[in-house]
Structures are given as C-alpha cells and as structure tokens.
C-alpha cells in the first residue's frame, strides 16, 4: 500500500522517508513539530525522528456488509508482505522487491517466512485489541449513510 504523505512546516527541510509509515504516525509527528509531549497511548511514532528504525506496517479491511465476507489483513516487514484473507482462511506471501505487483505467491515455497509474518500479525492484533481505544465500538451506518445508534449494553 503506497499513499504519499506530505508534511510542510517552517524550517523543515524537504526529504523523503524510506521507512514504512502509517496514519497512526500523524499525531506523534505533528506533536513533535509543535514541540508537544507525545501521548503514551499513541501507537505511532514521530516519522521525522532520525534515525527512523524499521518496523512492520499493518493494514486491515472489512467489507461494508458482513454478507460480503471480506476481511483481509496485511503486514509488511522489510521487503515481504503477507496478506491474510480471514474469510477464505488463506494467506499469500510476496517479495515486494522482486515482485512489486504481487503476482507470485510465495506462501507455499517459503512457509517459514509466511509463518513468521503471520505470527507478527497475530502479535499486532493482540496488542491492538488490548488498546483502550479498541473498546470503543465503531459507528454503524445504514444503507442511506445515516448513523445508526449503538445498541444498548446487555444488562
């Protein structure tokens, strides 16, 4: 997943960050630019810090409707990407340097790499589920785009 991120600030020299960055890095980066303390609850990091240590990047998608059966997760570490299709109970492994278009699935020929990245994804999911913000239910919308009130907690 490649989405450009541009940040402009007075006194900030233009440069490219080669490390994987995520949306969760925005708040810590902006706080650092404003010389504000970082909140320990934030999972992200200041992407303008030097040096920026490599770390895995994660993504997840769900279909708009449960009936669609879409639930995929991915982890990118170094030049490898694992995509897990939880609905189909499958996974695919790609070497992004040799195969940037993700055409050749290596999961069957490199099961140890697939298992290691799958374990990294599991660890991330465990940590994300334990995060305080994970306890807040996401908003629900009907087909017309109207927000549906959250169901009352069970008594």
Short description:
The protein has 155 residues and is α+β, with helices and mostly antiparallel strands.
Q: Span between N and C termini?
A: 42 Å
- Classify the secondary structure makeup into a structural class: alpha+beta
In terms of DSSP E residues, the strand content is 15-25%
- Per DSSP, the total helix count is 2
Mind summarizing the main beta sheet?
A: 4 strands, antiparallel
The averaged pLDDT comes out at: 86
Number of DSSP strand runs = 6
Task: Write down the secondary-structure element order.
Answer: HEEEEHEE
What integer value in Å does the Rg equal? 19 Å
Notable characteristics:
155 residues, single chain, alpha+beta, 2 helices
Structural summary, described in words:
The chain is an alpha+beta fold. The chain has two helices and six strands, in the order αββββαββ. The strands form two sheets. The protein has a four-stranded antiparallel β-sheet, with helices on one face. Strands 5-6 form a two-stranded antiparallel ribbon. A hairpin with a 4-residue loop joins strand 3 and strand 4. The longest helix is centred in the C-terminal third of the chain and has 20 residues, at about 110-130.
């Amino acid at each position: 997943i490649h989405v450009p991120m541009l940040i402009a600030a007075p006194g900030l020299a233009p440069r490219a960050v080669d490390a994987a960055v995520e949306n969760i890095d925005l708040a810590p980066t902006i706080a650092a630019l404003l010389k504000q303390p970082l909140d320990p609850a934030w999972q992200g990091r200041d992407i303008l810090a030097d040096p920026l240590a490599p770390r895995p990047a994660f993504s997840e998608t769900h279909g708009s409707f449960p009936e669609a059966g879409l639930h995929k997760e991915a982890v990118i570490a170094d030049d490898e990407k694992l995509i897990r299709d939880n609905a189909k109970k499958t996974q695919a492994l790609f070497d992004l340097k040799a195969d940037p278009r993700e055409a050749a699935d290596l999961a069957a020929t490199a099961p140890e790499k697939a298992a290691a990245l799958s374990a990294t994804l599991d660890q991330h999911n465990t940590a994300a589920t334990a995060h305080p913000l994970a306890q807040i239910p996401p908003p629900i919308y009907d087909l017309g785009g109207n927000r549906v009130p959250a169901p009352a907690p069970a008594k």
